[in-house]
Design a protein that fits this description.
By secondary structure, the chain is of the alpha/beta class. It has helices spanning about 35-40, 45-50, 85-90, 110-125, 135-150, 160-170, 180-195, 205-210, 215-225, 240-255, 275-280, 305-315, 325-340, 345-360, 400-410, and strands at about 5-10, 15, 30-35, 80, 95-100, 130, 150-155, 175-180, 200, 230-235, 265-270, 320-325, 370-375. The protein binds pyridoxal-5'-phosphate and zinc ion.
Length: about 400
């Protein structure tokens, strides 16, 4: 029944059946899901979307599954927060935060991609799911996989934050901590994926998995009252999310859900892992892999699989990219918390700090409507803030002790 017509090579455009495959046999280009847009156009309307349950499957026709959704029935539909205080602090008038710090169940946008990947994995008949992760994906595959009854093999760099490791272990997956960085983990997983018949969500299921990110973009348009923003700022690791946010906007235009689309797409990366932004700034098509060294570990992919395509989106939309230091990332996290009461993980600090920089440089104008994608929860990376927050006021359980402190606070 689905509306996905198959897979297509992004390079040579050869068509493939919708199978658990991810590279073109002819040119080794990546495969991508394609849809019957004419059929969708006559089927999907704003009213239909609005009449459906508040989860990411309300855009079902534009997601690459065949049958009924099986995973993620409580995921998606996060708030689009009008960020008036943050807007004022950075010098713009219309700013929104797409708040994926609160996605069910593991508090990052990865719950979107995993909902689609595991539904598809179940359709293909896999009993074991796996992933290579910088942390958030590990949580999501562990959690969604537990509820859906899959065996789970989760591969992470051993150097991840302790709280990120615990937040996977609690779901009791087989957690494999590799002595190496994400790019080493990913290489190893490609070898394992060739040998074992598992659904590696970001390897052999990648063409399906990646499509789940589009729901973040669909929601932005719906929540803005069926219009696309002037600017959207997207944090990049592999670059996939950025390409899919843009794809979602284009699809809504193509099927007539919106009439106009003039959005500029901006890439946000940490300076310590900036292969995509560096290529944008250097005006080159060549992504040079880097060895990541950044507090934003969730974005620490030195050799980004979708980097080239992310570059092309930035180019096509007349966007740009910026990178920020570890100190700027921490400041970004604190700024968002102080102004909007949103505690984002380091990747959110990157996006906020990059937005501030783009405004300061005059690349984003004060009257434009800008959406910042904040994609993961701060409780996952508390370690990053060690030594960067204030201290509690310690008192004894006596009124006098409290009032002593109160006097000091007031005197400040
Ligand atoms: C919180 C967060 N934001 C953004 C990203 C970037 O995702 P992508 O690899 O699709 O560029 C990641 C990737 O792990 C992430 O964990
Ligand atoms: Zn090809």
């Amino acid at each position: 029944m689905g509306f996905v017509s198959g897979l297509q090579c992004r390079e040579c455009k050869r068509q493939y059946e919708a199978q658990p495959i991810y590279v073109c046999e002819f040119c080794f280009g990546p495969l991508e899901a394609v849809y019957d847009y004419d059929k969708i156009r006559s089927h999907l309307t704003r009213e239909k979307i609005q009449s459906r349950a508040a989860n990411l499957w309300r855009y079902l026709e534009l997601l690459p599954i065949e049958g009924e959704p099986r995973v993620g029935l409580d995921s998606g539909c996060t708030p689009l927060v009008e960020a008036k205080n943050l807007a004022k602090a950075i010098g713009v008038k219309r700013l929104y935060v797409k708040d994926d710090t609160v996605v069910h169940p593991t508090l990052s946008f990865k719950d979107r991609v995993v909902s689609v990947a595991l539904t598809r994995a179940a359709e293909f008949g896999f009993d074991t799911v796996a992933c290579a992760s910088t942390g958030n994906l590990a949580h999501s595959v562990s959690a969604h996989g537990a509820r859906a009854g899959f065996n789970r093999f989760i591969f992470i760099p051993a150097s991840l934050e302790t709280s990120k490791i615990v937040a996977s272990l609690v779901y009791e997956p087989n957690l494999i901590a590799v002595d190496g960085n994400y790019d080493d983990v990913n290489r190893l997983c490609s070898e394992i994926a060739n040998k074992y018949k598992w659904a590696f969500v970001n390897i052999n299921i990648r063409p399906y998995y990646a499509e789940g990110s589009k729901t973040l973009g669909f929601e932005i348009i719906e929540q803005l009252g069926w219009r696309a923003p002037d600017n959207v700022i997207v944090p990049c690791a592999s670059g996939s999310l950025l390409t899919k946010v843009w794809k979602s906007f284009k699809e809504f235009k193509q099927i007539g859900i919106i009439d106009e689309l003039n959005t500029r797409v901006f890439a946000a990366q940490p300076l310590g892992c900036n292969p995509i932004v560096k290529a944008i700034k250097d005006k080159t098509d060549i992504i040079r892999p880097v060895k990541p060294d950044t507090v934003a570990k969730s974005l620490a992919i030195g050799n980004p699989a979708d980097g080239f395509y992310a570059l092309k989106v930035v180019e096509e939309t007349n966007g740009y990219g910026e990178d920020v230091t570890d100190d700027e990332i921490i400041d970004g996290m604190k700024l968002l918390a102080r102004t909007e009461g949103i505690f984002a993980e380091t990747a959110g600090g990157v996006t906020v700090a990059v937005t501030k920089k783009l405004v300061q440089k005059g690349i984003i104008g004060e009257d434009e409507l800008t959406v910042i994608c904040v994609t993961g929860n701060g409780l996952k990376t508390k370690e990053a803030l060690a030594g960067h927050t204030g201290e509690p006021h310690y008192i004894s359980p006596k009124l006098a002790s409290f009032e002593e402190v109160l006097a000091k606070i007031k005197a400040k």
